[in-house]
Amino acid sequence: MTPAEWLLLLGAGLLAGGINALASGGSFFTYPALILTGLPPVSAAATTLTALAPANLVAIPEYLPEVRADRHRYPRELTIIVAGSALGIAALASTDNGFFETFVPWLILAGTAFYAASPWLRRWAERSAPNAATGPIGTAAMFVFATYLTYFGSGVGNVFIAMYTIRGFDTFLSANAAKNIAIGTGTLMAIVAYGLNGFVSWAALVPLAVGSVVGGWVSARAGRRLPVRAIRLATIAFGIFVAGWLFTR
Question: Which pLDDT tens digit goes with each residue over 39-54?
Answer without folding.
Answer: 998 898 889 888 877 7
